[in-house]
Amino acid sequence: MLESLRENILTEATSDDLRVIILSAKGPVFSSGHDLKELTSAQGREYHTKVFHTCSEVMTLIQDIPVPVIAMVNGVATAAGCQLVASCDIAVVTEKSTFATPGVNVGLFCSTPAVAIGRAVPRKVAMEMLFTGTPISAHDALLHGLVSKVVPEERLEEETLAIAQRVCEASRPVVALGKATFQRQMAQGRDAAYATASKVMVDNLALRDGQEGIRAFIEKRKPVWSNKAEKAHD
Length: 234
Description:
The chain is 50% helix and 12% strand. It has helices at residues 2-10, 44-64, 80-87, 111-117, 123-132, 138-144, 156-168, 172-186, 190-206, 208-218; strands spanning 21-23, 29-31, 69-73, 76-78, 90-94, 98-100, 136-137, 149-151. The protein starts with a helix and ends in a 16-residue tail after the last helix. InterPro entries: ClpP/crotonase-like_dom_sf, Enoyl-CoA_hydra/iso, Enoyl-CoA_hydra_C, Mitochondrial_ECH-domain. One of its GO terms (biological process) is fatty acid metabolic process.
C-alpha cells in the first residue's frame, strides 16, 4: 500500500495540470497503519528497515511535492494512518472519525507517527496519545490542530471538493512556492524564517503570475494565470 501510494503521488507530480491530491478510503477504516503480520521476527531486520524507510519516504513526499495534499477521512485513522493524516496539508473529516496511536499497547511505540503528530498537535496532547493509545474524537482532533475541518458524513465529499476547487483557482507556481516555503521556514528559528520568507516574497513578485495577480487587483478584474513558473522580471 505504501509503495502504491508513493507511485500514485509521484504520477505527474510535476505536471502543470495536477493542482491538488485528495487521499480517501472506502469502508469504516481510513487507515489502520502497518500490517503487524509484516513486523514479526520472521521477516527480519532488513525487511523491517525497508518498511519504515518506505513509510517515512511517503510521509515526507506528501509534504515535499509542489501541490497541496488533502486527507478526506471517514472513519478510523490509527498509528501510521494517523501519521498519514498529520502529514497531509489539509484534513477534512467526518464527525465519526477517530484518531489514535495505539502501538504502545501491542509493544511497538508509535515513534515514526510521533514525528508527524508531534508537529501537528501540542506536545502534551501528542504524549498522551502516544503513552495511552486512547483514541481522540474528530472534534478533539480539530481542537488540537490535527485536522482542518469536521463535517457531517453526507457532506464530506462536497466540503473536500470545495476546498480542492479553491486551490485550483489559484496559480500553481504560487501555491507550490508557498507550500515549499512554509515547510522550510517552519523548521527554522524566527529570524531565519523571516529571512527565508522575505526572500521568497521577492521571488514571488518576480513570477509572471505574481505580477498578473497584482495587475488584476489594481484593474479590478479576475487574474488570468499562466500556471507556469515563468518570470516577469529578474
